[in-house]
Every structure is written in structure tokens, then in C-alpha cells.
Amino acid sequence: MSKILVIDDEPWLREMIRLALEQQGFEVIEAEDSADGVNQARALLPELIICDVNMTGRPDAGYATLAKLREDASTAAIPFILMTGMADAAGMRHGMELGADDYLPKPFKVEELFATVNARLRKVQTVRAEAEKKLTLLRSQISLMMPHEMRTPLNGIISNAELLASAADTLDPHTITEMSQEICQSGQRLERLIENFLIYAQLEIVASDPASVSSLRLAVTRPIAAIIRAEALAQAERVKRSQDLVLNLAEGSLGMAEEYFRKIVGELVQNAFKFSETGQGVQVSLTASANLMELAVQDAGRGFSPEQINRIGAYLQFERKMQDEQGLGLGLAIAKKLAELHGGSLTVASTPGIGSTVSVKLPTARNR
Questions:
Q1: 0.85 cut: is pTM over it?
Q2: What is the tally of helices (H) and strands (E) in the chain?
């Protein structure tokens, strides 16, 4: 049984709507004004909200109610229908900008009420069904891909460890050191692989829930130049190429959690070093405008074909052949997913044999 919240300061109208909807099998909650409606919505989390625009002498009370509920992560995704006797174009546009899902002009017939309510609830059910379909596919892909992708680093760990365990007394110190380093590197590779699978799975789950996406965008990170500098230097030092790193960073703030922004920077810079040689520069730049911050990572390495660029995506595109040939895969897919979940974008411009530039555009904190 779907739960519907009706917010209106006229008792007779609330009662009429309640009786009509209860006849259709809905559970109806009533609220007499904006404050009461916001409190009940947060406490009871209805499947749908119907709210009058003009209440208690305030011609914008419905808009204010909508704005408050859209700011709260727990209620941000609840479908919201505005009722109004003044359904002018400007008012409708304002409501839609605040996040209204539909309008119900007054006076209305019971049939129109049913049609509007059922249309909104059907849309919610469709979105949920599609989200569940995606999650089912994701579970299947993870179960297929994890054993395959984990085999290479595990083989490196097991083979070296077995040799050390069985023949350590016959090996010279230099060989033992090399084998220990290989174990360490394989372990780090395996750790990163598992981490990326878990992060991507988490992001797919978040993407299927509008309320989670809204909550995700509430975070703010500043100043971001220092974060970029630290992460880029760490990646350069890891491959002993600090001399190849060039930084050109503006200042700014983002509507994104620091851990996610670090992940984007780390994946982009790591790939730039992976697909270029020592002595080839890797330039990391950050430019700022009133609404956007743009992070660009440019290398002079091998570059990628358009087909390989198009394969940056979900697990279905994370093929072993692609991983063996170029190493493109889940890391850039995660960066792309993070950018899109925060209202931004990721693009790749590349020419085989010349190099690549990966650009991420993200809204500033005040323009989330």
C-alpha cells in the first residue's frame, strides 16, 4: 500500500483527497501547513507528496515546502505534486526548477487526481525496477570478473612465496630481495583491484538511488590545489618520475568528498605515467571559472584509439584483452562515474603515438 502525504490548509480539500485516495487503496497522511508537512515527510517518508502552493496566506508556501524537502537527503527523491489555482507558466517553471514532478490545477476532478497520482507512482516503480535490474547485472558481472582479474597478482604472490618457503636457504640475498619486492607489488596490485571493484559496486548502488546521489553532492572539498599536488607527487614518486611531473594549478572548491576527488586525481595521474615513458612529461592542470573547475592530465605517451576510449565504462567493457593491451578499465570508469554522479563529466582526447589528455569538469561547491 503506497503512503501519500497531502499538505493543504483547507480541511475540506484534504478530506476530499483522502477519501478519494483511500477508495483506491492508498494510505493517506494529512498535514495542515508547510511546517507540519515537512516534519511528517521526514518522519514517515511517504511514497508521494501532494502539496498546495498557496497556504496560510503565503502564496509561495508550497514552493518553500518543496525547497526544504529537496535539501534533505532523506526526502529529496520523493515525488512531489503541486496543487494550484494559478497554474501560470512562470509559477510552473519555478516549481519545476525547485524539483516538482507534476502540477495539479485546481479545481480538479477525482479522475484527474487519480491519473496524476498513478502516473507519478508508475514512474517511481519503473525507476526502481530499472535500478534493480542494473544491480542484478552488476552482481553477476562482479562474480564473473573478480576471479579472473585476481588470478595474475595472486599467481605472483603464491609462486614467489612458495619458492621462498621451500628454498630460501639456497637463494642469495639479492634474489630474496627481488622476490620479496615482487610479492609486495603483486599484493599492492591485488589490493587496488579489490578496492576498485568495491568502489565501482558502491557507486552503481548510489547511482540507482536519487536520494543517495543528492546526499553525495552535499560534501565540500577545499582547497583542492593542495590535494592535487600531494596526490600527483605521490603517484610520480611511486614510479620514480618526479622530474616528469609539471603542475599548473588554480585554487577553488568542489561539491565532492575529498576521498572521491583524490581517487579521480590518482587514477588519472597513474594512467598518464603508466602509458608514457620516463622523460616524457606529464602535465596536471587545474583551471577555474565561476561555475566549473576543470582538471586536465596530459601525457606524451602511446595514446589510445577511439574504440579503446569508448570502452571506458562498466564491467561489460572491462575486458581482459583490453586490460592486457592498454590497461584501460575500471580506474577510469570509476573516475568517469564519480564525475557524472557529481554533475560533471570526463572526456578523453587522444592520438595514438602522440599522447592523451583526460579532462574532468566538476561544478564548484556553490554551484552543485
A1: no
A2: 12, 10
